[in-house]
Amino acid sequence: MAFRMRYLSTRGKTTKITGAEAIVRGLSDDGGLFVPESFPLLGMDKISELSEKTYAQRAAYVTSLFLDDFTVSQLEDFSAKAYCESGFPNIEIAPVRKIDKRTHILELWHGPTCAFKDMALQIMPHMLTASLRKTGEKREVCILVATSGDTGKAALEGYCDVPGTKIMVFYPRDGVSKVQELQMTSQRGDNVNVVSVEGNFDDAQTGVKEIFSDGDFRTELDSLGSFLSSANSINWGRLVPQVAYYVSAYCDLLKHGEVNPGEKVNFCVPTGNFGNILSAYYAEKMGLPVNKLICASNRNDVLTQFISTGVYDRNRPFYTTVSPSMDILISSNLERLLFESSGKDGSAVKAFMSALSSEGRYSIPDSMSGELSRVFASGHCSEEDTKKTIGHTFDKYNYLIDTHTAVAYKVLDDYRAKSGDDTTAVVVSTASPYKFCEAVLEALDVQIEGHGAMLIDSLFDKTGFAVPAPLSKLKDQVPRFYESVAVSGMKAAVRRFVGGK
Ligand SMILES: *Cc1c(COP(=O)(O)O)cnc(C)c1O
């Protein structure tokens, strides 16, 4: 074995743990996030070799470099279970489509919930359950999720009927779309539960956080043979599978002669919590030929401001946009980038994070901006431009994109115009346009009639663009879950689900 991968905390705690432990623990005791001590290298020969392999094989190889406490054959097994026809009915897992001579789109929405979170959440449950066995855990794990939409459904699909697990999702009763609600409440599986909470997303999230930090409740669950874990995007198990699709996209470009071996490409990523683009950064650190990673924001441009100025300031209005998965003012995974760009200085990161929580802002020194500007560029896109871009790409290329992808598409256009950098670029497409029918129909100037799943038919009639199987079946689904609780009733709901009185 070449070397053993170890993980550290971004806030300076130096205890080094394995990949399996990082996945089981989620968060370090000092409040930091787990990061690899060093990055495994991926040479051009290996990338060429992977370009002849399937997506599942590519993913197994890339994840094995980070999770070397698993055997490659174990990871091949997880990967084959995750990236197979039952979850990805279209068979193509993460295809790259050519739009014009230098522009490609990486479609990450062929999974069961039609958004990119499936790419990690289809494989993570296998990694987590195996990690639990490895660390000697005998109790049943109960995954708790508070969701504003996409993550809840993706986690339900990932954990559905996985032995040794239960999953419970709380969503704000008036805070998700009808399509999202039906996607969740019609979830199949014997180990799942979905409950709406009276209040908004923050109320649901606060309720879940309180349950996690309640020591007495933990003891009670322990006596029932159960314990709680989370599926949110700061877990290492969510990030490592995402590195694989950047490698895979490059492999596809290579295989189809779109780049020469070693030729650099740009990726433009619609960003919210900074998880997706961070995985691209990790791929770059492993040696994937990347020129620039372009961070795209909607009107909530706190991240792109940070990348261009070095000042992170969340004291600003929060806007609700047509790309809701990017409506975020605190991007938790940015902490991992701060760690790398400070030269792995845990105490510096700790100081930034405490300034963020006390003052809502921090600014990084010039010594850190070098690494940022080496790799990153950024831009943001208005609501109006988001819609225009959907209309324009449909008219010009007969290709339909969702609102999040449109933000990235426009930001790439702007970046090219401003920088003159016309490196071959890949726009990362994070959701099927059929998940955001209303905004997409508006962008195409179609009169909206009806709501929810009915709009899927209107959008298909207008565009002829194939409807992903999981969404075309949605209108025939019936809800299985109707329970609604106040925030104060969330703990009791978990207790009932886990099996206590
Ligand atoms: C979650 C999500 C994003 C944002 O991804 P991050 O990893 O949080 O930056 C973008 N688009 C869609 C459709 C999403 O579901």
Key words describing this protein structure:
22 helices, alpha/beta, six-stranded mixed sheet, globular
Summarize the structure in short:
The protein is an alpha/beta fold and 501 residues long. It has helices spanning 19-25, 44-50, 55-66, 72-82, 117-121, 124-134, 150-159, 178-185, 201-212, 215-223, 236-255, 275-285, 302-309, 334-341, 346-359, 366-375, 383-397, 403-419, 437-443, 454-463, 469-472, 490-498; strands spanning 7-9, 34-36, 96-100, 103-107, 140-146, 165-172, 192-197, 226-230, 265-270, 290-297, 311-313, 361-363, 376-380, 425-429, 484-485.
Distance between the termini: 49 Å
On the 0-100 scale, what is the average pLDDT? 93
Structural class: alpha/beta
Apparent shape:
globular
Q: How much β-strand is present in the residues?
A: 5-15%
In angstroms, what is the radius of gyration? 22 Å
Text of the CATH class of the domain at 98-113 and 242-438: Alpha Beta
**Main sheet: strands, sense, barrel:** 6 strands, mixed
Number of strands: 15
- The largest beta-sheet arranges its strands as 3-4-14-9-10-13
Helix content: 40-55%
